[in-house]
Amino acid sequence: MTNAQIASRLKVGEATVKTHVSKILAKLELRSRYEAIAFAYRHDVV
C-alpha angle 30/24/32, rounded to 5°? Predict the structure, then answer.
């Protein structure tokens, strides 16, 4: 989903979504959402 789609669904601002996504990626030492998807599959999150 795009930041705008996530923001709409969660009823928060798009900047808030961008901030949270960036922090999650940093904490997991990932560079992109694609790496996050692979990480989630490897760790049975999805």
Answer: 35
